[in-house]
Amino acid sequence: MAVPKGSGFSPVRRTVPEVGAPDAIDLSRGTPTEQRINQYRKRRYEALHPANPVAVKRKQEGKLSARERIELLVDSGSFQEIDLFARHRATGFGMQERRFAGDGVVTGFGTVDGRPLAVYAYDATVFGGSLGEVTAEKIMKLQDLALRDRVPIVGINDSGGARIQEGVVALAGYAGIFRRNVEASGVIPQITSIAGPCTGGAVYSPAITDFIFMVANQGYMFITGPEVIRVTTGENTTFEELGGGLVHSTTSGVAHFLTQNDEDCALQIRRLLSYLPSSADEQPPYRPPADDPDRVIPELQDLVPDSPNLPYDMREAITRVLDPESFLEVQPLFAANMVVGLGRLNGHVVGIVANQPKVLAGAIDIGASTKAARFIRFCDAFGIPVISFVDVPGYLPGTSQEHGGIIRHGAKLLYAYAEATVPKLTLITRKDYGGAYCVMASKQLGADLNYAWPSAEIAVMGPEAAVNIIYKREIAADPQPEVKRRQLVEDYVRRFANPYVAAERGYVDDVIEPQHTRRTLVRGLELCLRKRETRTPRKHGNIPL
After folding, report:
1. 64-273: which CATH number, 3.40.30.10, 3.90.1300.10, 2.30.42.10, 3.90.226.10?
2. pLDDT of residue 495
3. Which pLDDT score, from 0 to 100, does residue 91 have?
4. What is the reported pLDDT for 17?
5. Rounded CA gap, 389 and 297, in Å?
6. Considering 167, 201, 434, 446, which one is annotated as catalytic?
7. Which of 27, 204, 249, 536 is the most core-located residue (most Cβ within 10 A)?
8. Which superfamily does 298-460+498-528 belong to?
9. Is 201 marked active-site?
10. DSSP letters along 69-135, please?
11. What residues in the chain have per-residue pLDDT under 70?
C-alpha cells in the first residue's frame, strides 16, 4: 500500500507466522524431548491454522482473519502472541466437543514504528467471536499487562457479543473488561477498531476507549438490533442504517474515524499512534521539523473576508500554520462546526480546537461542545498542548438546542478548558462574542497566551445586535432610522468590535499580522512547554456529564 508522501510514518506490512506444516513429523520417533517438541509443533500449527468450516469459508470469501488484522497493524515480525493454547471450560449445549485453541480472541504484543503496543483481535471463526469466560480472561490479562507496562492497547472488534451458552460468566467478563478500561483511561492510550459486529453490552468497552475506528460497510455497533426494534416499536431498519460506520461518524458521534477497509484502518491507527505518547508518564513523540519555524504565510493576510457575514475555511489557517501535512483531523464528519485534531508545530505534537465559520457560522451547539470537550480532556491527560483557533458568534440559538440541554453540554467545553493544565494558546481570527468568548480558551479561563488578528471582534455580541438593543429608542425616533442605525453600527465597530479594547486590559497578549502567526505560536509554544501547574488536591471534579 502506498504511503502518502511526507507522512513520516512507516507503511503497513503483512507478516505470516513462520510455522512449518507438521505433515512430515513422526511423533513416535526420537527421544522423549524430541517427541514433546514435535507434539508442540503440531499443536501450534493446528492452533494457528484452524480447519473448522467457518474459518475455511471466511478464507474463501477473502475476509481477513484475526491474526492477519493484527499483522497488518504491527511492525513486520514483531507480534508475540500469548495464551494461544487457551480453551473454554464450559459444559452443556455440546460445548465440551467444541474446544478451539485461543477461544475466540487473539491476544499479544508487538511494535508500531519500533514502539511497543498491546493488541487483541476477536476471532469470528470461533463461536462468532463471542465472549466467554476464557475470552474475557485473555483480554483482561492483556489489559493488565498494558497498564502495568505503560503501553497503548488496541482492540479489534468482530464479535457476536456475549456467549449465550456460558450465561452470566460472559457478562461478568464484560464487566471486568469495562473496569479495566476505566482504570487505564488517561494513563495509556486505548484505541478500538470496529471491523465487524459489536452489539449489546459489548459496545461499552469501545465507548470508554479514546478513539474508535470503524470500517465502512463492514463494522457496525448498536445496543439493540433491528429485529428487537421491529418487534418492540414496529420500526424497520437495517444494520447499516442503525449502527453502521457512516451513522456513527456523522450522526451519533460515537466513531472518530471512518476507514475504507481493514488495510486502511490499520494504516490510520498507525498514523494516530505516531502522535501519541505510550503513556501519560511520557512526552508526546517529537519529530525534528523540516519546516522553518519563522516561515511567513502571506496567504493568511486576506483569509478572513471583509464582510463579517461571509464564511471561510478555518482549516486553511490550521494547515498553513502547522508543519506541512501534519494535521490529522479527528471526527471530521461529526459536528463540523467545530474542528479538532492532532498536528505538529515545529516538531511538537499539539491538539487543535477550532470553530469552523463554514458550518453554522462557527456557532457552538451540543455536538460541537461534547466533541471538543472530550478531545481537550484527552490532550490534557496525555500532555498534549492545545491551540485554539477562534471565530465564534456565540452558542447556536433555538428550542431544539435549549431542550436538548445546551446549557449542560455547553458547560462541558468550559469545564474541559478550565480543567486542563497543559499549555493553552489561543488565536482569535474574527468573531469572539458573548459567552462563547469566555468558553473558547479565554485568558480568564486559564489560557497561557492569547493572540488576535487585526480582524478580530471581541464583544458581548455582534455590532448590529448590540446597536438594536442599546439604541432602540434613538433609532425609532430618528426620521431616517436605517441611516441612524448604520452610523451607530459603524461607531460601535470602531469603539468596541476590535481586538484593542481587550488588548488594553491584557485579555489579549498581542495583536499580530496573520502572516506571522506560525512564528508567534512557535515561540509561545516553546515557552509554555516548560509550564508546571498543579491543581487543588481532590478525588475528582464533577463535570456536568
Report:
1. 3.90.226.10
2. 84
3. 65
4. 46
5. 16
6. 201
7. 249
8. 2-enoyl-CoA Hydratase; Chain A, domain 1 (3.90.226.10)
9. yes
10. HHHHHSPTT--EEE-TT------STTGGG---TTTTEEEEEEEETTEEEEEEEE-TTTGGG-B-HHH
11. 1-29, 90-92, 94, 96-99, 101
Q: Is 170 helix (H, G, I), strand (E, B) or coil?
A: helix
- Residue 414 is predicted with a pLDDT of 96
Taken as a whole, the chain contains a residue count of 545
pLDDT at 1: 44
Count of alpha carbons within 13 angstroms of residue 45, beta-carbon side: 14
Distance CA 137, CA 105 (A): 10
Q: Where are the alpha helices (DSSP H) in 185-313?
A: 204-208, 226-233, 239-243, 245-250, 262-273
Q: Looking at residue 324, what DSSP letter applies? A: T
Q: Measured between alpha carbons, how far is 523 from 477 in angstroms, rounded to an integer?
A: 53
Give the position of cell 464487566: 175
Any catalytic annotation for residue 436? yes
Contact indicator for 406, 396 with CB cutoff of 8 Å: yes
| Catalytic residue (one of 121, 184, 436, 502) | 436
Per residue in 275-312, pLDDT (tens digit) is 999 999 999 999 999 999 999 999 999 999 988 889 99
Annotated active-site residue in 176, 434, 435, 446: 435
417: left (phi over 0), alpha (psi -120 to 50) or beta: alpha
pLDDT of residue 492: 86
- 185 vs 209: CA distance, rounded Å: 7
Closest C-alpha among 110, 194, 102, 213 to residue 153 = 110
**Helices and strands (H, E) in the chain, number of each type:** 20, 17
**CB 329 within 8 Å of CB 369:** no
For residues 162 and 128, the answer to whether their CB atoms sit within 8 Å is: no
- CA 185 – CA 187 distance, rounded (Å): 5
Residue 161 annotated among the catalytic residues of the structure: no
Q: Identical fold at 64-273 and 298-460+498-528? A: yes
The per-residue pLDDT for 490 is 86
Rounded CA-CA distance 466/474 in Å is 13
Closest to 542 measured CA to CA, from 364, 343, 361, 408: 408
The pLDDT, as a whole number, for residue 8 is: 52
pLDDT digits (tens, 9 = 90+) for 363-391: 999 999 999 999 999 999 999 999 999 99
Task: Give the model's pLDDT for residue 396.
Answer: 95
Note the maximum CA span of the chain: 112
Residue ranges covered by each domain of the chain = 23-62, 64-273, 298-460+498-528, 463-496
Active-site residue, from 132, 155, 196, 200: 200
Strand partners, 157: 194
Is 132 catalytic? The answer is no
- Number of C-alpha atoms within 13 angstroms, CB side, residue 276? 31
